[in-house]
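ESCALATION

Customer reports they have been waiting on this structure for their group meeting. Please prioritize. Original submission:
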Amino acid sequence: MNARALLFFLLVPLLRAELPPSAYESMQAKAPEYLKIEVLRVSVEPGESPTQQRVHVVAMATEVFRTATGLKPNDIVNILYIVTEHPRGWVGPGEVPMLKEKERTVAYLSRTEGDDFVPAAGRMSFSNF
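Update from on-call: job pushed to the front of the queue and completed.
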């Protein structure tokens, strides 16, 4: 096997591999919004493909640790994201978890151009290490 082929087989799995914890910690540290939320409502709709779901979470901020947008406790936030179902054995970054109504958790978020928010730390957007 030549060196190029060997390099290809060694690097391609890394391109789709799970991110190391330090990458998620870095994303959490850079997230403009870090708060605790209580999930009030979760709506799920079909996505652009059969393996995708569009998730809309309505949550109330219960504590605000860091905010770039002036969020305060008791503010209501809309969080939008997509969950993709991957085939068994698929290797890649973990999906943002599906939140449940009445769940209380931390949230690392970024604001969209509108008034909505999106997860800012991938699969670790709603949990701490």
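Sent to customer with the following note: The beta strands are 33-46, 52-66, 76-84, 104-111, 117-119.
Escalation resolved.
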